[in-house]
Amino acid sequence: LQAAEGARLAGASRIIGIDLHSGRFEKAKKFGVTEFINPKEHTKPVEQVIKDMTNGGVDRSVECTGNINAMISAFECVHDGWGVAVLVGVPHKDAVFKTHPMNFLNEKTLKGTFFGNYKPRSHLPSVVEMYMNKQLDAEKFITHEVTFSEINKAFELMLKGEGLRCIIKME
Questions:
Q1: Which EC class is this protein assigned (predicted)?
Q2: Tens digits of per-residue pLDDT, 88-119?
Q3: CB count in 10 Å sphere of residue 97
Q4: Which of 17, 19, 23, 47 is disulfide-compatible with 77, CB 3.0–4.6 A?
């Protein structure tokens, strides 16, 4: 959802969210997601569904889960000639990224990054400015508050996909 919010702030007019839980679309709308795909609801591979609905592929894709199949789909769904896929999620150490060589010959770009290439010293001031100017609503990322003694609950919520960001109150 942070990638969707970043795309919204960058001016993207069409943001497609992908998740295996259709119920998450309503929450995703708050972060700029305009369309939603649940791969389980389609017979075609998700990258083909995206190509069909976008006339050949998206300009940019961002994969944040680290699921190797999702990473491959994120690359294969970008448009030939100018599409860029950015891989943010960290895959299992034994995962292998396999794709057809034509995906590279068709001038698609694949980038990897740790932490979204975020540079706190140079980026944080602009994030604070966007927050102060009400361009960025950071509160919508906070889904739960727990006390320090309940810190394990915050991890459980995260692992179940129910907690986006948890505030941990020091007692």
A1: oxidoreductase
A2: 989 999 999 999 999 999 999 999 987 667 77
A3: 12
A4: 47
